[in-house]
Amino acid sequence: MKRVKTGIKGLDEITDGGFPEKRTVLLSGACGTGKTIFSMQYIFQGATKYSEPGIFVTLDERPDLIKEDMLRFGWDLQKLKEQDMVHMVDASLAKIGIPSEEEFSMPATGFDLDKLLLEILRVSKRIGAKRVAIDSLSSLGMNFENEFEARKAILKISYLLMRIGVTSIITSEIGHGSKRFGKYGVEEYVVDGVIVLNYMGLGAQSNRTLHIRKMRATKHSEQVHPMEITDSGITVKKVESLYEKT
Ligand SMILES: Nc1ncnc2c1ncn2[C@@H]1O[C@H](COP(=O)(O)OP(=O)(O)OP(=O)(O)O)[C@@H](O)[C@H]1O
Ligand SMILES: [Mg+2]
How far, in Å, from the CA of 168 to the mean position of ligand 2? Predict the structure, then answer.
């Protein structure tokens, strides 16, 4: 199976060369664990390092705020947008009935999964997308009556992404210390990979970790890896680095 390099430092080494091509990976973690930065880094690196156009779908945060935040890492999304390399799809405002200023967005008539998927398809056709990130799935929550509906929606999303032929990340928020990987307890079964981010602030030292729970068709590390967020984004470290003196 072909691999798609994430471009996230240290990650491709422990996943046998990257994500399985045209598959979907679930990135789960509590709030503040780095899900948004991780998924944007995947899209940004794809566009700048590997010339692969990408789509970032935002369901929670406003696109203008994300763009502003990401400049801190030196990731100029506006420039990539002008080059038709990265486009954002704004679904953050539609949910509360406010029209978006983004070129690609959902109408301000409430959340509608089919409309969102059509919008992703539209952008994808325009730029020939190879990568998609959807951040985050958890906020779809209010639209599902039960687990069955949630499962159906997630299956639908991953099916469409597969049909478009993109390699994607879907993020999902879970509580601290949760044993589940997704809010609905079904996400992990319908995706091809699960990566869990963790964060424990212990005294002066903050500990971030990354753990690959599953990655179909891949020989991957089963260990819990230390992870760092710095001004250049996310870096995944080897486990041995835990024991190195700093
Ligand atoms: N330049 C930076 N250097 C170090 N750490 C940073 C930097 N920028 C952000 N962070 C850390 O990253 C965290 C935010 O990451 P991110 O927004 O990706 O998390 P998230 O999992 O998406 O959270 P949420 O569930 O709230 O959306 C911040 O809480 C902060 O600790
Ligand atoms: Mg986030």
Answer: 16
- Tell me which of 33, 42, 135 to substitute to probe ligand 1's pocket, judged by most ligand atoms within 8 Å of the beta carbon: 33
Structural contact between residues 131 and 54, judged by C-beta atoms closer than 8 angstroms: yes
What is the identity of the amino acid at 238?
K
In the structure, which protein residues have their CB atom closer than 6 angstroms to any atom of ligand 1?
29, 31-37, 72, 173, 229-231
Residue ranges per domain, the chain? 3-243
Alpha-carbon span 106 to 110, nearest angstrom: 8
CATH fold for domain 3-243: Rossmann fold (3.40.50)
**Atom of ligand 1 minimally distant from the CA of 31:** 25
Dihedral class, residue 74 (left if φ above 0, else alpha if ψ from -120 to 50, else beta): left
Per-residue pLDDT of the chain (246 residues; tens, 9 = 90+): 899 999 999 999 999 999 999 999 999 999 999 999 999 999 999 999 999 999 999 999 999 999 999 999 999 999 999 999 999 999 998 878 888 989 999 888 877 889 999 999 999 999 999 999 999 887 776 566 777 777 788 889 989 999 999 999 999 988 777 777 776 666 777 789 999 999 987 766 679 999 999 999 899 999 999 999 999 999 999 887 666 654
